[in-house]
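Researcher: We plan to redesign the surface later, but first we want a full-length starting point. Tokens attached.
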């Protein structure tokens, strides 16, 4: 078990990489070989209804967009959800689950829209890369909160998780220790 995963990774306001500007990443894995996470607060221009049609799956009428899960393998979908009954689900923490199967996709797309996020792609870091970025002051980390992921409006998640840490985002500046 890592201190980073499972957990949330929060980009500081000065994050230079446009893939991660004001992003919140659900960290799935972190070990000596690297790290993997899924951005949960960057809506894409792809409607879930389009994905449902491609897969022959009916979609709940209130379904919104898919999300940009990260810059790696954007053709691959990751389902972050809160339903323990969905097939092939991996429990991460605090009522948050991860699925990648088509069976899971069908169950979730037909269900309540605020119970899941379909994220296309993922974020990956090589051995030691994320640690260096954290030491340089590029990221904050916190625990997973199902309420923040699913119940907070998408455009407010970044601000809310930083404030949950007791930090006013306006006071964040880039900095850090030695690399």
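Model: Full-length starting sequence:
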């Amino acid at each position: 078990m890592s201190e980073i995963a499972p957990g949330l990774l929060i980009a500081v306001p000065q994050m230079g990489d446009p893939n991660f500007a004001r992003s919140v990443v659900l960290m799935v894995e972190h070990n000596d070989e690297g790290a993997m996470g899924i951005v949960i607060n960057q809506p894409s221009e792809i409607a879930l209804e389009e994905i449902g049609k491609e897969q022959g799956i009916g979609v709940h009428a209130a379904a919104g967009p898919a999300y940009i899960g990260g810059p790696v393998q954007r053709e691959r979908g990751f389902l972050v959800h809160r339903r323990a009954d969905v097939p092939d689900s991996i429990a991460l923490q605090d009522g948050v689950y991860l699925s990648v199967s088509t069976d899971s996709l069908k169950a979730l797309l037909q269900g309540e829209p605020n119970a899941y996020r379909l994220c296309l792609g993922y974020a990956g870091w090589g051995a030691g890369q994320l640690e260096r970025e954290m030491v340089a002051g590029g990221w904050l980390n916190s625990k997973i909160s199902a309420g923040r992921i699913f119940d907070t409006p998408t455009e407010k998640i970044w601000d809310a998780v930083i404030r949950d840490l007791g930090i006013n985002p306006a006071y964040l500046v880039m900095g850090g220790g030695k690399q």
